[in-house]
Specification:
Structural class: alpha/beta
Order of helices and strands: HHHHHEEEEEEHEEEEEHEE
CATH topology of the largest domain: Protocatechuate 3,4-Dioxygenase, subunit A
Number of strands: 13
Largest sheet: 6 strands, mixed
CATH superfamily of the largest domain: Aromatic compound dioxygenase
CATH architecture of the largest domain: Sandwich
Distance between the termini: 48 Å
Number of domains: 2
Shape: globular
Length: 283
C-alpha cells in the first residue's frame, strides 16, 4: 500500500475487497469503485469540489429522519430511482415508478370500497380497478399499500395538521381482484426544497415540481411486488416531473360519472369524478 499511486489506487481499492464472500456484493462494489474513480479523473475533481460533495451528503444526513429521507430524494432528482425502476420492470406487467421519500409502514386497513376522503378538503374521487396477472386473470388476495398527498400538496409527515394515518391505507382484494375506494383528487406539488436537494436543483436551474399522483405498492404470493405511481392526464408537469417518474402507461383520465347506483354505493353525489386503473403483476 505504501507505493499506491494515481494509476494503481483503483485496483488497490478493488483488491481490498477480495475477502468478500458474496459475489453480488463483490461485483457491485468493484464496479462502483471503478466508476467513482473514473468520474473523479474525468472531471479532474479538486479537493474543494470533493469537500462540497461530502458536505452535501452530510447535510442530507442531518435533515433526514423517520419522516423524511433526503438520500432517496437525491436519488430521485438525479434519475437513479427511475432508472432502477425501469431496469426492474417486468415485460407484460405494470411499469414501476418511484417509491418517493414519504412511504410509511403500518398504514391502517381499509375494506374494498372504503372511504379514504373522510374530512379532507378537495374534489371527491372514486378510484377503482383490478389486480390481474399477465394473462389478465384476477389475483385473489392481492395486497395494496396506498398513500397520497393532501390537496395542499403535503403528506402527513410534512403537515402537523394532518393525522399520521391520513390518506394512506392497506387493502386486500377478494377473489375477483377488485379494489375500490373514495378519496380526494390530489394536486401537483413541489418536492422538499429547503435542504441540500433544493440547493442542487437551484444550482441546476431546475424546478422542483411533480405532477399530481397516487402511490401504490401492490403484491401477492407468487408475484413480484410492484411499486408504482398513477398520474392524471392534463397535468402541467407530466413532461417535466422533477424526479422523472412519469410513464405514459401510468397516466389515467379522470372522468365525470353519472351512475346513480354507483354514487349511492359509495356515498357520493352524482355526478361524481371517477378513475379506473388495472394493475398487472409479474410472476
Amino acid at each position: 500500500m505504501r507505493n499506491v499511486s494515481e494509476s494503481s489506487i483503483t485496483q488497490a481499492v478493488v483488491s481490498s475487497f477480495d475477502g468478500a464472500t458474496d459475489p453480488r456484493f463483490r461485483r457491485i462494489i468493484e464496479s462502483l469503485t471503478r466508476h467513482l474513480h473514473a468520474f473523479a479523473r474525468e472531471v479532474n475533481l479538486t479537493p474543494e469540489e470533493w469537500k462540497a460533495g461530502i458536505d452535501f451528503l452530510y447535510r442530507a444526513g442531518q435533515i433526514s429522519d423517520e419522516k423524511r429521507n433526503e438520500f432517496i430524494l437525491t436519488s430521485d432528482v438525479l434519475g437513479l430511482s427511475s432508472l432502477v425502476d425501469m431496469l426492474q420492470s417486468d415485460t407484460g406487467a405494470t411499469e414501476r415508478s418511484a417509491l418517493g421519500p414519504f412511504h410509511s409502514e403500518g398504514s391502517p386497513a381499509l375494506a374494498v370500497g372504503g372511504d379514504l376522503k373522510q374530512d379532507n378538503d378537495g374534489e371527491p374521487l372514486l378510484v377503482h380497478g383490478r389486480v390481474l396477472d399477465e394473462d389478465d386473470k384476477p389475483v385473489a388476495g392481492a395486497q395494496l399499500d396506498f398513500w397520497q398527498a393532501a390537496v395542499n400538496g403535503k403528506y402527513w409527515q410534512q403537515d402537523p395538521a394532518q393525522d399520521p394515518h391520513n390518506l394512506r391505507f392497506r387493502m386486500t382484494t377478494g377473489d375477483d381482484g377488485v379494489y375500490a375506494f373514495t378519496t380526494v383528487q390530489p394536486a401537483p406539488y413541489s418536492v422538499p426544497y429547503d435542504g441540500p436537494v433544493g440547493d442542487l436543483l437551484r444550482a441546476g436551474g431546475r424546478h422542483a415540481w411533480r405532477p399530481a399522483h397516487f402511490h401504490f405498492i401492490v403484491g401477492a404470493p407468487g408475484f413480484r411486488p410492484l411499486t408504482t405511481e398513477v398520474f392524471f392526464s392534463g397535468d402541467p408537469y407530466l413532461d417535466s416531473d422533477a424526479i422523472f417518474g412519469v410513464r405514459e402507461s401510468l397516466v389515467v383520465t379522470v372522468a365525470p360519472n353519472t351512475d346513480a347506483a354507483l354514487a349511492k354505493r359509495y356515498n357520493l353525489a352524482a355526478p361524481f369524478l371517477s378513475v379506473a386503473f388495472d394493475f398487472r403483476l409479474g410472476r
